[in-house]
Hints:
Elements: H1 3-16, H2 18-38, H3 45-59, H4 68-76, H5 78-81, H6 83-91, H7 98-136
Helix pairs in contact: 2-3, 2-4
Amino acid sequence: MTARRIRVTFRHFIHHSRLAQIGMIVALWFIGGQIAKAFQLPVPGGVIGMSLALILLMTGGVSLFSMKRGADWFLAEMLLFFVPAVLGVLDHREFLGLLGLKILAVILLSTIAVMAATALTVDLIFRWSEKHERLAT
């Protein structure tokens, strides 16, 4: 087999094997974790791995079809990754009643407050910088 034929066969295998794509995504996550640990970065390994995947996709090092089926599987089975949180709610039945509604209200209101404060801050800084740019010219 020639090197080109091996590459084509490997690419075909990756494009059609969901398990291989999942393995590639997990490998990028693992590599990102090792980079974060080696350089003592304050960024999770998953974020670095996702950045590596983005770079590979943008540069053409990996095609979109080499990850699509594996990523679709992760998205379809995402509930499995949240089972511990669901079990925590089931252990504390009080979250399913009035207490849960109060906690939900606090979470929603605090999220809205943070988003509004951030939007106002960005708007004020944007207006301030525009004003100073006009004065400078």
